[in-house]
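Lab notebook, bench 4. Still working through the backlog of constructs that have no structural model yet. Next entry is a single chain of 222 residues. Request: give me the structure tokens for it.
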Amino acid sequence: MRCKGKVDLVDQRERGVMCWGGTDFGQTSDMTCQAFLFDPEMNDGKYIFVLFTWLCEDTCNKRIEQGEPHAQWVHDGFLEITPGDTTDYNYLKNRVLSWNKDYPVVNIGYDKSNATQTAAELTNEGIIMDPFYQGINNMNNPTREFIELFIKGAIVHDGNSVMRWMIGNIALQRDADGRVKITKKDPKRKVDGAVAMVMALGQYMEWKGIYGSSQASEIRVI
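Model written out:
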């Protein structure tokens, strides 16, 4: 992934840069991913993404036995393991709440599959959670924008190897009307983080469409 760059989180925090989130919930074989996109208007047009990824212990061990690089990802801090045979969403919830203390989250788009309780708990904590339908009609515009930004080199990340792997696994599904969404090149290869990034971008695009600019003075982030 050629868009690697320096991500200065201290700078984002000190300047109070807002961010938008996208959450793709996995349960057993899929990864659970939380992506955040910092406001590009406050970053010279650069789309800075941060990705957090979780996987249950049982599935991680199977992937390692199959020769996948999961152990290295864990070592490097890009993949967090939750005990047992299903992903514990409390890890994600706690990460979001901790993140919001330093980086104001405008809202988070989330996949409703397996997520009702976690979304409700985050809502009760003051996080604005928006259901994000992952059908091709809803995914089309942010997917196209993501691809264009990638080609332009406008996407910046912190060298996250899980993110790079998932971006490399992307194929595009097209319908008869030419609309597109992310799918997998290979069923064994995961794209959950890329989907979460597109969802975060979609949340930002919707916000900007409503308010015109993320810098509007009347905007208040809880």
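Notes after review: The mean pLDDT is 90. Residues 9-211 form a domain with the Nucleotidyltransferase; domain 5 fold (CATH 3.30.420.240). Flag for follow-up if needed.
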